[in-house]
Amino acid sequence: QVQLVESGGGLVQAGGSLRLSCAVSGTIFNINIMGWYRQAPGKQRELVAAISSGGSTNYADSVKGRFTISRDNAKNTVYLQMNSLKPEDTAVYYCNVHMIRLGYEYSYWGQGTQVTVSS
Fold first, then answer.
1. 55: region left, alpha or beta (phi > 0 left; psi from -120 to 50 alpha)
2. CA–CA separation, 62 and 76 (whole Å)
3. DSSP string for residues in 73-88
4. pLDDT value of residue 28
5. 14-35 per-residue burial string, b: 16 or more CB within 10 A, e: under 16
6. Among 31, 57, 71, 111, which residue's beta carbon has the most beta carbons within 10 A?
7. Is 69 exposed, middle or buried (0-12, 13-18, 19+ CB in 10 A)?
8. What is the structure's pLDDT at 29?
9. Are 45 and 39 in contact (CB under 8 A)?
10. CA nearest 3: which of 76, 101, 61?
Protein backbone atom coordinates (compact mmCIF):
# COMPACT_ATOMS: atom_id res chain seq x y z
CA GLN A 1 0.00 0.00 0.00
CA VAL A 2 1.07 3.55 -0.71
CA GLN A 3 -0.08 6.53 1.31
CA LEU A 4 0.23 10.20 0.39
CA VAL A 5 -0.31 12.60 3.26
CA GLU A 6 -0.72 16.27 2.41
CA SER A 7 -0.41 19.18 4.78
CA GLY A 8 -0.08 22.94 4.75
CA GLY A 9 -3.39 24.08 3.35
CA GLY A 10 -5.51 26.73 4.96
CA LEU A 11 -6.98 30.21 4.72
CA VAL A 12 -4.81 33.11 3.63
CA GLN A 13 -5.37 36.64 2.41
CA ALA A 14 -4.61 37.62 -1.16
CA GLY A 15 -0.92 38.29 -1.56
CA GLY A 16 0.00 35.83 1.15
CA SER A 17 1.92 32.58 1.02
CA LEU A 18 1.41 28.93 1.87
CA ARG A 19 3.63 25.89 1.64
CA LEU A 20 2.11 22.51 0.88
CA SER A 21 3.85 19.25 1.70
CA CYS A 22 3.11 15.71 0.57
CA ALA A 23 4.87 12.79 2.21
CA VAL A 24 4.81 9.39 0.54
CA SER A 25 4.95 6.29 2.71
CA GLY A 26 4.28 2.57 2.49
CA THR A 27 5.53 0.31 -0.28
CA ILE A 28 7.65 2.79 -2.21
CA PHE A 29 9.49 1.91 -5.35
CA ASN A 30 10.93 4.01 -8.14
CA ILE A 31 9.22 7.43 -7.75
CA ASN A 32 9.30 9.22 -11.07
CA ILE A 33 7.05 12.26 -11.43
CA MET A 34 5.71 14.09 -8.37
CA GLY A 35 3.12 16.77 -8.85
CA TRP A 36 0.34 18.95 -7.55
CA TYR A 37 -3.10 19.31 -9.06
CA ARG A 38 -6.02 21.46 -7.98
CA GLN A 39 -9.74 21.42 -8.39
CA ALA A 40 -11.97 24.41 -7.81
CA PRO A 41 -15.74 24.05 -7.34
CA GLY A 42 -17.44 23.37 -10.66
CA LYS A 43 -14.16 23.02 -12.52
CA GLN A 44 -12.05 20.14 -13.74
CA ARG A 45 -8.93 19.06 -11.92
CA GLU A 46 -5.89 20.75 -13.43
CA LEU A 47 -2.15 20.36 -13.20
CA VAL A 48 -0.48 23.05 -11.12
CA ALA A 49 3.14 21.88 -11.14
CA ALA A 50 5.19 18.74 -11.58
CA ILE A 51 8.78 17.73 -11.01
CA SER A 52 10.68 14.79 -12.42
CA SER A 53 13.13 12.56 -10.60
CA GLY A 54 15.89 14.54 -12.30
CA GLY A 55 14.54 17.86 -11.09
CA SER A 56 12.91 19.14 -14.27
CA THR A 57 9.82 21.19 -13.52
CA ASN A 58 6.63 22.10 -15.32
CA TYR A 59 4.12 24.76 -14.26
CA ALA A 60 0.68 25.87 -15.29
CA ASP A 61 0.85 29.29 -16.93
CA SER A 62 -1.41 30.72 -14.23
CA VAL A 63 1.12 30.01 -11.46
CA LYS A 64 4.44 30.61 -13.20
CA GLY A 65 6.60 33.02 -11.24
CA ARG A 66 4.48 32.62 -8.10
CA PHE A 67 4.63 28.90 -7.23
CA THR A 68 7.71 26.72 -6.82
CA ILE A 69 7.69 22.93 -6.70
CA SER A 70 10.53 20.99 -5.09
CA ARG A 71 11.18 17.51 -3.79
CA ASP A 72 13.29 15.79 -1.18
CA ASN A 73 14.02 12.31 -2.49
CA ALA A 74 15.51 11.16 0.80
CA LYS A 75 12.23 11.97 2.53
CA ASN A 76 9.97 10.93 -0.37
CA THR A 77 8.32 14.32 -0.04
CA VAL A 78 7.21 16.95 -2.53
CA TYR A 79 6.57 20.58 -1.69
CA LEU A 80 4.68 23.44 -3.28
CA GLN A 81 5.66 26.94 -2.20
CA MET A 82 2.84 29.29 -3.14
CA ASN A 83 3.51 33.03 -3.07
CA SER A 84 1.47 36.05 -4.13
CA LEU A 85 -1.69 34.00 -3.77
CA LYS A 86 -4.83 35.16 -5.55
CA PRO A 87 -8.50 34.38 -4.86
CA GLU A 88 -8.55 32.36 -8.08
CA ASP A 89 -6.00 29.99 -6.51
CA THR A 90 -8.73 28.80 -4.14
CA ALA A 91 -9.19 25.07 -4.65
CA VAL A 92 -8.56 21.65 -3.20
CA TYR A 93 -4.95 20.77 -3.93
CA TYR A 94 -4.03 17.15 -4.59
CA CYS A 95 -0.64 15.52 -4.51
CA ASN A 96 0.11 12.95 -7.22
CA VAL A 97 3.08 10.62 -7.65
CA HIS A 98 4.02 8.20 -10.39
CA MET A 99 6.04 5.12 -9.59
CA ILE A 100 7.62 2.69 -12.03
CA ARG A 101 7.93 -0.98 -11.21
CA LEU A 102 8.78 -3.81 -13.60
CA GLY A 103 8.05 -1.60 -16.57
CA TYR A 104 4.65 -0.49 -15.38
CA GLU A 105 3.76 2.99 -14.20
CA TYR A 106 1.44 3.47 -11.26
CA SER A 107 -0.29 6.70 -10.21
CA TYR A 108 -1.24 7.55 -6.65
CA TRP A 109 -3.25 10.44 -5.21
CA GLY A 110 -3.43 12.16 -1.88
CA GLN A 111 -6.69 12.98 -0.17
CA GLY A 112 -6.48 16.68 -0.95
CA THR A 113 -5.95 19.80 1.13
CA GLN A 114 -8.09 22.93 0.95
CA VAL A 115 -6.49 26.24 0.04
CA THR A 116 -8.71 29.30 0.40
CA VAL A 117 -7.51 32.75 -0.59
CA SER A 118 -9.64 35.66 0.56
CA SER A 119 -9.77 38.97 -1.26
1. left
2. 27
3. TTTTEEEEEE-S--GG
4. 86
5. eeeebebbbbbeeeeeebebbb
6. 71
7. buried
8. 84
9. yes
10. 76
pLDDT of 71-90, one tens digit each?
Answer: 999 999 999 999 999 999 99
Q: What is the C-alpha separation between 33 and 47, in angstroms, rounded? A: 12
Rounded Cα distance, 106 and 32, in Å:
10
Residue 101 pLDDT = 87
Q: How far is CA 97 from CA 26, 67, 87, 118, in A?
A: 13, 18, 27, 29
6-60 residue pLDDT tens: 999 999 999 999 999 999 999 888 999 999 999 999 999 999 999 999 999 999 9
**What average pLDDT does the chain have?**
96
Cα dihedral across residues 69, 64, 17, 86: positive or negative: negative
| pLDDT beyond 90 at 99 | yes
